[in-house]
Amino acid sequence: MSEHVVPPLVLIPENAPFNPDQRSWLSGYFAALLGPAVEGATALAPGDTGGGPKLADNDDAPWHDPSMPLPDRMELAKERPEAQKLMAAMAQQDCGQCGYNCADYANALFLKKEERLNLCQPGGKDTLRMLKKLDEEFGAGGGGAKAAEPGEGEAKADAPLGPLGYCRENPVEAVFLSRTRLNEPGGEKETWHIEIDLTGTPIEYVVGDSLGLFPSNPPALVDAVIAELGARPERVIGGQTLRNRLIKDYALGAAPDGLYQLLSLLTSGEARKKARALSSGEDPDGDAAYLDVLGALHKFPGARPDAEVFLEALDELQPRLYSISSSPKADPGRVSLTVDAVRYNHRSRLRLGVASTHLGERISEKSMVKVYLQKAHGFALPEDLGKDVIMCGPGTGIAPFRAFLRERAATQAPGRNWLFYGHQRQASDFFYKDELNALKDGKVLTRLSLAWSRDGTEKTYVQDRMRESGADLWKWLEGGAHFYVCGDAKRMAKDVERAIIDVAGQFGGKNPDEAVAYLAHLKKTGRYQADVY
Questions:
Q1: pLDDT tens for residues 232-280?
Q2: Integer Cα distance of 47 and 139 in angstroms
Q3: Could you give the angle at which helices 257-265 and 269-279 cross, rounded to 10 degrees?
Q4: What is the pTM of this model?
Q5: Angle at 257 between CA 133 and CA 269, to 5 degrees
Q6: Cα separation of 158 and 155, whole Å?
Q7: Which of 197-206, 216-225, 349-358, 411-420 is predicted with the least confidence, judged by mean pLDDT?
Q8: What whole-number distance in Å separates Cα of residue 369 and Cα of residue 178?
Q9: What's the alpha-carbon Rg for the chain, to the nearest Å?
Q10: What are phi and psi of 408, to 5 degrees?
Q11: Looking at residue 347, what is its pLDDT?
Q12: CB-based contacts of 219-225 (< 8 A; 24+ apart in sequence)
């Protein structure tokens, strides 16, 4: 009898959008992640480790809803295996900022392939605290990851880097070309069209992908923190000055638990009690949501740690992801982003979004910026160019759909295109107005439905326009159209889902359970895709 040869398990298909080096690295990464599970002849079912503990996967995750509160997600997962509990603690956005999707991040933590617990940016401190709590429950005895100590938050020094320009651990430098204000005078928002030159980098993107960007902190904020510490900005720590390290390496946003723990050691009495309470997630004075690093120092004026110890208590400055708003077919060699600059005042202090204002005001043209490509997880145009496309993206949610439309124009896709766009006021907030009208005149954009929440006496949103056009929307969906949504995960995306369910009920004659099942079927078949944040 001839020996039966076990065929290798193909982890990254040949037709995946990666070059051979990237495919090789990704195959090695996932093989290491799954360990012995890839050494057999049979491909594993989702969540199955070949006899070992059950892993997390999206197909068996009722908590995989970014609008669901964390306590509700954990309640759904309370009887589940450990890896699935870890997944339930994530923000459920599959945004990729952590370098994974939610299930893969949870599995990497569980299998101890990843030690950093602070990578879920949308989940923030709530997710981090829950991951630490889960680690305390089963980390030592199960497969859970070792909790990072304050300030640890860094990848293993000997961990292999991923493909250059294709992961957060191995970014490349690209040239910042320009910024153009998208709002007309009178608008309440400050939104920018950003152009970055990718020439000379290995990055090759497709529409639907996102660009990761490493920002720098505002120098004025850094100087204020150093002054509050009573430290010298030129002091050298870890081979760099304190000022440079605070500008480039450390997050100065929401004060981390580790900082409150440190401050509690340097205070006494009521101040110590408050610092300890804040470090455990309590809110003794009702101001925890507004306390950034500088605010925490102001709150405990008697506690002034040594600068080196202070840095160890901070979190590392994380990259930010932005949906790409350009098409490589229409815009070769460059990438564009659509960015809201975040600014607000609290207690007489101006607060700034670190990455958005870095792009919107601080970085100068022709400067270098560190970037990497984050491949999309299930957010792409249909392969069949003849399929109709419905896009719903209010505000900066228009970014990937500008890319989609430019791609559809460049490929002369015969499928129809329908965009739902909205913002506050038409006069000031109609982003890419001339471009969209030109696409409509050129028959690329079949329908353009607009919603303005601050024009007129009643607020109108994109989901209202969907219901108003429900009969046609239903015909498009029944004809095989693919539906896409981009924007706020907590409310807008959920409102859009409810509108689809309502349309299925009113115009499709479905009862409530059937309408919900219809939306679920769209998701399962890849005809409803979301890029939410």
A1: 999 999 999 999 999 999 999 999 999 999 999 999 999 999 999 999 9
A2: 19
A3: 160
A4: 0.80
A5: 110
A6: 8
A7: 349-358
A8: 12
A9: 24
A10: -65, -35
A11: 81
A12: 219/243, 219/247, 221/252, 221/294, 221/352, 222/246, 222/247, 222/252, 224/294, 225/252, 225/293, 225/294, 225/297
